[in-house]
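Forgive a beginner's question, but would it be possible to get a protein, spelled out as residues, together with the matching structure tokens, please?
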Amino acid sequence: MKYFGIFLFILLGLSSCKKSGIIQHRLKFTNATIDEGSGKTSEDSVYTQFGPLVTTLTPYMFKSKLNILAYQDNLESAGSNSSTHMISYIDGHDNDPNYQIYLDVDFSNNQEVTAEPILYGNDLRDGVYEQDEVTMNYFMFMPYYYYQEVELPIGYQNVFLQNLASDAVTYDAGTNRLLLKCNEIRLLDMLYPENLRPSGIVFGGTDSTYIHNPQGLPDVSGCPFAGPICNRPFIRSHRYSPIIVTMPNGGETIEMFSTISFTPDNLIQVYAGSDGLSYTSDDVFVYAPRYWERVVARLEIR
């Protein structure tokens, strides 16, 4: 009986140490297509309110500043006392300089970074969850802004473009190129009022891609975020496959490898405007319809 007690003590001790392994996190941002059909705009996917389509443009540089990048198992907002498990790569403590509140990423350069995320949930211990398995059903992606650089047709060199900021378009005499360098604001102004621009993407839990709460009503149903952000439109996307993350045992190391793609091919569409004439001041530069479908997320466990 004495030996059985010793055995039971050792067994309990081993069990209590089970969830003390290591989870490493690596993120890759790319402009490559990682899902069939992602990032492609069909020929008939055009607007009808801006006149004839003149051309489409592909940025040679596409970056973003992100303020939400996280995995969750439930849609409910996560916290230290919540049953929702959340792995967040950006923390929202904007009043504390020790926290990273934004993440600068470069989709055009196949950027890879090692991350140290913040984990939320009520069963955390030594950087892992006590729960043996956690299924990450949702992926949250919210950019603070997109930034692009793209070459414009040289025919616009001496045209004042009403749709674009005057200081965003520059002529490079050395290469004879006309360049547009700007955030996405000008390219969305003609599509959405500022308070109705889609604020981010929630991947998973749906079989289609659509704008949730397009009118920006005070409706928090189906919103995984906290605070007034739920009063703005955001995207629900099916371009994500949930994956089970098995917590590592003591001495074991696993890697959560995330690939986030934004395919910028023909991202910017140029229209002739109300006069129907190309290369005039009222030509309209906008993101292609359903531009958010170009964002695809994939999680692998290595």
